[in-house]
Amino acid sequence: MIAELDWLKKWSLYAPKTTAVVDGDTGREFTYRELYDISQKGADLLSSKFQVTRGDRVAIISTNELEYIFLLFALKRLGAILVPINFRLTQREVEHIVGDCGPKVIIYQDAYADIINQLPSAIKPKPYSMDQWTSDLGTLNAKTHYAEGVKEREFVSDPADPAMIIYTSGTTGSPKGAILSHEMLFWNSINTSLRLNISQSDTTVIFLPFFHTGGLNVLTTPFFHRGAKLIFIKKFDGDQILKLSESHKATLLFGVPTTMDMMSRSDIFKNVDLSTLRYAIVGGEPMPVDLIHKWHDKGIPIRQGYGLTEFGPNVFSLNQEDAIRKIGSIGFANFYSEAKIVDDDGKELGAEQIGELVLKGHMCMTGYWKNEKATKETIKDGWLHTGDLVKKDSEGYFYVVGRKKDMYKSGGENVYPTELEQVMRHLPGVREVAVVGVPDPKWGEVGKAFIVKESASTDLTIEKINDYCAKNLAKFKIPKYFVFVHDLPKGDSGKILKRKLLELYPS
Predict the structure, then answer these.
(1) How far apart are CA 327 and CA 279, in angstroms?
(2) In terms of CATH architecture, what is 2-137+157-390?
């Protein structure tokens, strides 16, 4: 299967002059042949300079850069493992990841040099600045070509070998490193390509960070697998994404509800030409109804999806034709994966019954790096337990109800915050809402809703929200507390950080 894993070599032969990747901030671009040649030189550099070999970890802490992509493919050739590190983490958090995975080398931008310099000597890998990596590669000139004089290295990675370790956000403790094998990336790409009809003629703009599976594996690795064109930018900028999508005639767009909302509020959204977009893919959390309509009115269908670092991340997809009819649904499981809903005893549940989503297939991670306990708790009898509560309707469409850890009991009744959030989002004047369970002496737990108004001038009041909830929710589901906030804290993937909300507003 090695030949099937060496995607870059194949495309360097099939489509050597086709543009593979474009830096949307600088305009630098590389063809598949150039990208292949640079990956060869990168592999040689890492091997000769640092003796990087099969199984070694190489970490990188950087914004989205071309050199990030060069490193990805250089390591694939060597059989070494990419460890992307979130540049927004604290010193303590970076030390945890470095100490956990033990990289031989860490590539870093100058902006994060202090973090690298302060790493304890006992765990400190060999530092390699991004500027030096760029200089050694010789890629400052975008059109530099290495076809001559570059030794072609054998591709040594096997399907079961780890390709990357992506650390989860650590919302329930220290970050855990999900091991993603070459086989997993291969099948995720096949799965994604089949479901989204990705071909060599496709183009997309990537703006989620590469240290997140949403940045690396929702479209990036599948696009390279299919020989398609990828444009990336360093940070989210709604206007820039819309302009790049127009000028490059993008055919697909991936975002989360937060980023899709911000783009729809752009001053240029109404007039920008996005007619080449087949659809937009949305993950992270359910897309609000009004937001779906905004994009549909623009002529862009929405495909709600679902995935996670540990499996996929392209696991479910809703056909764009069902975006309105099945609002809130994630659709069906994609190709080459199994999904079922189970109770706490592992018994499979039927229609309209809420339980945990479990998954099985080639897209499953190998496990958590150096964490056998967490691996056994997550993967049982070949099934990955997602921690997400879902249900399916009579037609078999799946719906995410919430996280097991987000659910709370009020007076003995299960309450799922996602349901409440979806209801309140329909109320005019509500822009965003997040509900969490908080202790209560009488009911055990009650809901606390944090609400962002559509505008400061809106006449939305707590009384209006209460009245609306009373008409649309059972009494035990109605939050006891309502708090107006300016914004909701979000992680790098755009998901709302509910634990952070409780820290910011403890009373």
Answers:
(1) 16
(2) 3-Layer(aba) Sandwich (3.40)
